[in-house]
């Protein structure tokens, strides 16, 4: 994410969560955590709840986010619990994915980029998943009416079914659609996929 409304939105949210000790996994993290294995890259990791849980299961994790609040929290936990987490403070659009990972996670990330950049990042995720590795991707899709966290012109809502189409030829281990009420009578429509690279 760039230094924009989205980064500010989440950094403010993360500070509130840290102050309140609110570190629960969200529904998408709970649903996809059983599929995580090996060397993990968590892009847009936020406060690191998912990364920390993966590391507690003995996995090696690279956790990347643009929020200094989030990265400081992850580093503190990794140090205190001796977890194998490399917490990286970086804008996602300038972070170079290098090497291969057994699991690449992008939960609630791609929608914060213009469409062309979101799809390029999705291609990079697909490219850097190791053979037999998995991609875990969660996005807001068309039908979402809650726009409070987006900067005008700097977001992307994939079409229904588009996420699965982007992983055509992969083994789909999980595909789900979730719909949630949002502030002001709006809705959030999510698509989540876990796909294994052949």
Task: Report on the architecture of this protein.
With 198 residues, the protein is an alpha/beta fold. The protein has six helices and seven strands. Helix 1 (5-20) packs across helix 4 (68-81). The relative contact order is 0.17. The mean pLDDT is 91.
Task: Give the second-level CATH assignment, the architecture.
Answer: 3-Layer(aba) Sandwich
CATH homologous superfamily (4th level) name: Vaccinia Virus protein VP39
* Main β-sheet description: 7 strands, mixed
Number of helices: 6
Beta-strand content = 25-35%
Distance between the termini: 30 Å
Tell me, what is the CATH class?
A: Alpha Beta
Give the strand order of the largest sheet, numbering strands 1, 2, ... along the chain. 3-2-1-4-5-7-6
Order of helices and strands: HHEHEHEEHEHEE
CATH topology: Rossmann fold
Helical proportion, percent range: 25-40%
Compute the number of strand runs: 7
Shape, please? globular
Mean pLDDT metric:
91
The structural domain count equals 1
* Poorly predicted regions: none
The oligomeric state of the chains shown is single chain
The whole-angstrom Rg is: 16 Å
SSE class: alpha/beta
């Amino acid at each position: 994410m760039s230094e924009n409304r989205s980064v500010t939105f989440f950094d403010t949210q993360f500070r509130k969560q840290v102050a309140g000790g609110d570190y629960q996994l969200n529904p998408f993290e709970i649903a996809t955590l059983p599929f995580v294995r090996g060397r993990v890259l968590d892009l847009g990791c936020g406060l690191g709840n998912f990364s920390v849980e993966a590391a507690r299961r003995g996995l090696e994790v690279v956790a990347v986010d643009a929020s200094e609040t989030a990265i400081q929290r992850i580093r503190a936990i990794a140090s205190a619990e001796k977890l194998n987490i490399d917490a990286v403070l970086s804008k996602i659009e300038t972070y170079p994915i290098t090497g291969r990972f057994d699991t690449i996670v992008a939960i609630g990330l791609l929608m914060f980029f213009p469409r062309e950049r979101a799809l390029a990042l999705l291609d990079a995720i697909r490219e850097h998943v190791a053979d037999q590795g998995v991609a875990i991707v969660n996005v807001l899709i068309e039908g979402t009416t809650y726009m409070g966290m987006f900067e005008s012109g700097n977001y992307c809502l994939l079409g229904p079914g588009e996420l699965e189409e982007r992983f055509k030829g992969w083994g789909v281990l999980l595909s789900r659609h979730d719909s949630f009420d949002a502030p002001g009578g709006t809705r959030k429509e999510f698509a989540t996929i876990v796909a294994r690279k052949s």
